[in-house]
Amino acid sequence: MKSLRLALSACTVLMAEAATAADSAGLAIIPAPREMSVTGGECAAKGEPKFETVASIPPEGYELSVKKDGVTIRSSDAAGAFYAKMTLAQLKSPGKKTLPCVEIKDAPQYKWRGLLIDDCRHFFGKEKIKRVIDVMSQHKMNRLHWHLTDDQGWRLDIPGYPELARHASVRAASAKHGTRPHVNMKDYSHLLNGEKYGPFFYTEADIKEILAYAAERHVVIIPEIELPGHVYAALSAYPELACFPERLKGKGPLCAWGIEKDVLCIGNDKAVKFMEDVLDYVCKLFPGDVVHIGGDECPQDRWKTCPKCQARMKKEGIADVHGLQPWITRHFVKFLAARGRRPIGWDEYLLGDVPKSAIGMSWRAGGGGAGHRFLTPLECVKRGHDLVMTPRTHCYIDYGQGLKDDPFQYIGGKVTLEKCHSFNPCEGIPPELRGHILGGQGNNWSEYTWNEYDLDWKMWPRSCALAEAVWTGDKKPDFANFRARMETHRKRLLAQGVNCAPLE
Ligand SMILES: [Zn+2]
In the annotation, is 262 catalytic? Predict the structure, then answer.
């Protein structure tokens, strides 16, 4: 502890001084509050805190005053009051009945503080999703990006399309633990476990229950419906929505990972209507103002030779196949706007002529192109798009965390706890354009994440570091300070049954 404290810079900003004070008082608040002073003495903490509404406190912000004779919480909104309670819970030391007296003024730097859960490659189910919402909200994270549809499974029951729940939510087999089946392999059958996976999907009642649970914790759910790529599960249920239906006949969701070439037929009005029906239902079910429409990794191979796609291009005056995805993106930007929603999508969906109201989600900043064209964060904001930063260099929770003797399998790459903590959503963005950066999120892709223990291990403590990065922003304490607080906080997570990985 002593060496850690000596390692802290002497000329730190107020934030770091506050966090050092927290540390010296044995406090472990994550994310660190923006301003905090430990005023001395203890509060007996009997009875409910006193709540006051103060209009001048920023959205989601709060003031927390713990005095010997009681606790007062001030905020301008319900979210701020909720976050004050989360801080209050972290002020308590295990086994201690009193609280240290403190004065805290706190508010987030970014309004989008998210986590992505991929329920397609592996399915976690209603109770686990609720646990994720509960734990993320303790860290003042407020956006659950829910990846509900992909090549390997469709997880949402849609009225009028019964085959999605019956057929597209079941796959014939999954990867054997430790193997890496890939769609580009000629034969990967020896890498599969032969066990039917599913049916796994959410009903309307499930979704409503989860939404109510999330709303109580000030978490907005962002549903993701992938289009026009990553739709193989849906195409296997309704082959007529693909460019070449005969390729899909008798097929089910993919059992291997990778980028699939059979995608939505953009020339087929029925395929467009299918996505309209799905998104219309999603807008009726999910109250959030943003809907994720995927847009990543969509090969154009089939469109090049599909008569319907070629006819669409001719009719709409689209010069080459690169113009088809922007055409359908524009269509759904308009479609969602008519329902009071803004779309968000992976960075390459902003290529071509796409309205500024479309929000980008940047995953390749500083990390190369993964073989696809895409816009850099700077290009996105220069075009006037708002952006959520999820660079795989800092935010990909499915990458290895650099632990010795790690029992779990990762997709590859390395994102350490320190790397997560160093995440700066505004990196490389000039000050005058930073207003476009809405925030950031950690992405838990689940190709190699089999179950909830595996998910927890990968997600925590790295998401604690990401939560601190997006809450404190430019007032973030240094890593040594975070790590010292995390020692205590990890015990708190373990006591709740969260399978938090060691810090090392
Ligand atoms: Zn087509």
Answer: no
